[in-house]
Design a protein that fits this description.
The complex is a heterodimer of chains A (250) and B (380).
Chain A: E1 2-7, E2 9-11, E3 33-35, H1 37-53, E4 57-64, H2 68-78, E5 82-87, H3 95-106, E6 113-117, H4 128-136, E7 140-150, E8 153-160, E9 163-170, E10 173-177, H5 189-195, E11 200-204, H6 235-246
Parallel strand pairs in A: 1-4, 1-6, 4-5, 5-11, 6-10, 7-10
Antiparallel strand pairs in A: 2-3, 7-8, 8-9
Helix pairs in contact in A: 2-5, 3-4
Chain B: H1 2-14, H2 18-27, H3 32-40, H4 59-71, H5 80-84, H6 86-92, H7 95-107, E1 112-116, E2 132-136, E3 139-150, E4 157-163, E5 177-183, H8 184-187, E6 192-197, E7 205-216, E8 220-221, H9 227-232, H10 235-263, E9 265-266, E10 269-270, H11 275-303, H12 309-334, H13 345-353, H14 362-373
Parallel strand pairs in B: 1-4
Antiparallel strand pairs in B: 2-3, 3-7, 4-5, 5-8, 6-7, 9-10
Helix pairs in contact in B: 1-4, 4-10, 10-11, 10-12, 11-12, 12-13, 12-14
Chain lengths: 250, 380
């Protein structure tokens, strides 16, 4: 079972985001970066599939600056076999150039499965995975919550409005992982030690500009201060009035 | 390496938030799930050499693990000894003993996190201990009592220091003591009784009674009569590791107090704007960071195989004082809320107080510095 997992380095959800002086990038000073949480589910699933099969290889790909090496090391500590960094210091706002770079690299890998997180928590595009599938002409199932692989085919489940959709697909395929697919493992101490010795290849790539240009980043408007409409049961009428006429929430 | 270790331990600790520790504290229960997760991830086997299934880390690396547990609001004292008590076995045990026990300790199948030293009547005056182990044939017969034996109920094996030659038959009082490995799984009910002692914080400490307990001679660690030296030479590592825990506590208090002082508004402004609140937080931070430097100094010497008794002792003293001052500061910053259980300050306050007294009293560190570093007369 040969599995590729594509991961991304993203700001921690708990970190306070500051916008850089250019107005269109994040000021990285003091920001903590993590492995995209949905990608963590993808890595865990790949490791479990390999362990279940009893053989195979899990290769982790990241696209980004040198700092993404740390993100790849995190996955190596979890148990991935090797990593490849497609290095670029000029990321594109368009997901398509990223998908092209990844597809070009993955094409010759002879992977049974290519896994992504369902989206990266920084840009929410949900696009790179399906685009890679399209470029490689492979079947694609997004946001899976359960997966069973049986030889050359697999059954995946995805949560849809009000129910579960069960999909059968043939391998090789591209899948993206949703929360609930599994419970990712903690990196073990031995894993951290071993990760230092695992191969991590760095390949320079140049992304074309693509068709989308990022114009501006803006923080959401600061939340207005709350207002106490009154106290006790007497306040209920005033609250309902405010919710109806001012907030128009009910 | 340290950044990655911290990150990984932090991630593990995130699964055991304040509420987890608070709940255990209210019931005085052992953090089984946390210790299991920590063991499974291999952290408690950090110091065991790779050939026995551990990771062979340095004391400096291992200290980062314990520091980070306390830094995240947890309590490494519940299991830190699983990391370092095996050191006595590693340094002085026979090849057979090491092969028999270390891999299982590394895998977490065997817990060796209890060391019977203190006794009710002798306290820190270890050489006067009263517990005896009398050799008869291929067994030692142990009689006596130990106190403040932490985690005895959560350990499979215990190291025990007992007198094998009566004090009046040895030249120096440090002679005639021996270290035995007691398999508690077999010993309980056959001469070994453990009685828990309820304390002001959740610490699983006990008193342990030996009544004609038989221990095979094969379980003697090293040579008979040299146990006191074996005990002493494990202490520097312990002091450095505990200093790191104190640093973790200190940073937790400073971080919590800073956050609270920034958010809590009284008289129309955050209380942290008042120098009466701000300066004690700043002072606590300075003390913790200074203690941390001594901790790294001691760890570097230890890992280079150089003498570090003075530095390890100083690190422990500075770090324990810094965490205790930080704890006081945090209660003061939080005011009434510092006493409320749901803010966790009072819990950590009680937990960090222990480092003033255990595993050794601050006074004994001062006595060591006075006598052995400065050349003053022995004061005790």
């Amino acid at each position: 079972m040969k599995i590729a997992v594509c991961v991304k380095r993203v700001p921690d959800t708990e970190t306070r985001i500051k916008i850089g002086v250019d107005g269109k990038s994040i000021d990285e000073a003091g920001v903590k970066f993590i492995l995209n949480p949905y990608d963590e589910f993808a890595v865990e699933e790949a490791l479990r599939l390999k362990e279940k099969a009893g053989n195979g290889e899990v290769v982790v790909y990241a696209l980004g600056s040198d700092a993404s090496q740390e993100t790849i090391r995190t996955t190596l500590a979890m148990g991935a076999d090797r990593g490849v960094l497609l290095k670029t210091d000029t990321p594109s706002a368009d997901p398509l150039p990223a998908a092209r770079a990844l597809a070009a690299e993955l094409k010759s890998g002879a992977y049974d499965l290519i896994l992504f997180g369902k989206f990266a928590i920084d840009d929410y595009h949900q696009a790179v995975g399906p685009m890679v599938a399209e470029l490689l002409d492979l079947p694609c199932v997004t946001a899976i919550g359960h997966l069973e692989v049986n030889g050359g085919s697999a059954v995946a489940e995805r949560e849809v409005e009000g129910g579960i959709e069960v999909v059968e697909l043939s391998l090789p395929a591209v899948l993206s992982a949703d929360k609930g697919l599994n419970e990712p493992r903690y990196p073990a101490l031995k894993g951290i030690m071993a990760a230092k010795k695992k191969p991590l290849e760095v390949k320079a790539v140049t992304l074309d500009a693509g068709g989308v240009t990022l114009l501006e980043l803006a923080l959401p408007p600061a939340r207005k201060e709350g207002r106490i409409v009154g106290e006790g049961p007497d306040a209920v009428t005033a609250l309902i009035q405010a919710l109806r006429s001012e907030a128009k929430a009910i | 390496m340290h950044a990655q270790l911290r990150g990984a331990v932090r991630e593990l600790c995130a699964g055991f938030p304040d509420a987890y520790w608070r709940d255990l504290d209210s019931r005085r229960e052992y953090p089984d799930a946390f210790v299991k997760a920590l063991t499974k991830a291999g952290y408690l086997a950090a110091l065991i050499p790779e050939e026995y299934g551990g990771s062979g880390l340095t004391v400096a690396d291992a200290s980062v693990i314990l520091e980070e547990i306390n830094r995240q609001g947890g309590n490494a004292a519940a299991c830190h000894a699983q990391m370092y008590i095996m050191g006595t076995l590693l340094r002085h045990g026979s090849a057979d003993q090491k092969r028999a026990y270390l891999p299982k300790i590394a895998a977490g199948e065997l817990r060796l996190q209890a060391f019977g030293v203190s006794e009710p009547t002798t306290g820190s005056d270890t050489t006067q201990l009263q517990t005896t182990a009398i050799r008869t044939g291929d067994r030692y017969v142990v009689n006596g009592q130990k106190i403040w034996m932490s985690r005895a109920e959560h350990s499979d094996l215990m190291l025990l220091i007992a007198r094998t030659t009566p004090a009046d038959q040895v030249k120096k009082r440090t002679e005639g003591l021996s270290v035995l490995l007691v398999d508690m799984r077999q010993a309980i009910g056959h001469g070994l009784t453990i009685r828990p002692i309820r304390t002001m914080m959740n610490h699983s400490t006990t008193e342990v009674f030996f009544n004609d307990l038989e221990v095979p001679v094969a379980n003697l660690i090293g040579e008979e009569g040299k146990g006191f030296r074996y005990l002493i030479d494990g202490l520097n590592a312990e002091r450095i590791l505990i200093a790191a825990e104190c640093v973790g506590d200190g940073r937790w208090f400073v971080e919590r107090a800073t956050k609270y002082a920034n958010e809590r508004v009284v008289f129309g402004r955050p209380i942290g704007q008042n120098q009466g609140i701000q300066f004690p937080i700043a002072r606590a931070h300075v003390a913790v960071e200074a203690a941390d430097l001594m901790r790294w100094r001691a760890a570097a010497l230890f890992d280079a195989g150089k003498p570090c008794g003075a530095e390890a002792n100083m690190a422990k003293l500075l770090a324990a004082d810094a965490s205790w001052e930080a704890a006081n500061m945090a209660v003061q910053t939080y005011g009434g809320f510092g006493f409320a259980e749901e803010y966790d300050i009072e819990r950590k306050f009680r937990e960090t107080k222990l480092y003033q007294v255990a595993p050794l009293s601050t006074n004994l560190i001062l006595a060591y510095i006075g006598e052995h570093v400065l050349g003053l007369p022995r004061s005790y």
